[in-house]
Amino acid sequence: MANALRFLIVDDFSTMRRIVRNLLKESGFPDADEAEDGVAALHKLRSSKFDFVVTDINMPNMNGFQLLAEIKQDDKLKHLPVLMVTAEARKEDIVAAAQGGAAGYIVKPFTKATLEEKVNLILKKLGM
C-alpha cells in the first residue's frame, strides 16, 4: 500500500522540511521523518527503514548530489527512489541528478499537485 510508505525529507531549512512534510501528509503519505543535511540523512537511512527520499540539493556538510551518490553506492540503500528538490532549474543540475540515479527532480516553489504527481509517477514507475 502506497500510503504505508516512509519518507525521509532532507533540507537545511526546517520550514521547507515542514512544508514538504505537510504536502506529503495531504497527499496521503503521513509517515515522514526529517534530516537537516546529507550527513544526518545518511545516518537515519542506515539506522532505520525508509521507502522514499525527498532531498534538497543545496545544503551544508553534504549536499543532495553527494547524498544521492552515497545512497546509490550503498547496497542496502541503492533501491530507494530519490526525488531531488532545488531552487534553481539549472540544466546541468537536472542532468547531474538523472545521471546520478535520481528518480525525479522538482523546482521550488512547487505546489501540492506537483509534488503529489512526481511522487506518484515515481512510485508507478517502480511498481510500488
TrEMBL record:
Assigned keywords, A-Z: Phosphoprotein
Top-rank taxon, per record: Bacteria
Residues recorded with modification 4-aspartylphosphate: D56
Coiled coil start-end: none
Domain Response regulatory span(s) in chain numbering: 6-123
SMART domains, per the entry: REC (SM00448)
Matches recorded under SUPFAM superfamilies: CheY-like
Phosphoprotein listed as a keyword: yes
Signal peptide: none
Keyword rRNA-binding part of the UniProt annotation: no
PANTHER family noted in UniProt: CHEMOTAXIS TWO-COMPONENT RESPONSE REGULATOR, STRESS RESPONSE REGULATOR PROTEIN 1
Protein name: Chemotaxis response regulator CheY
Matches recorded under Pfam families: Response_reg (PF00072)
Naturally occurring in which organism (per UniProt): Comamonas terrae
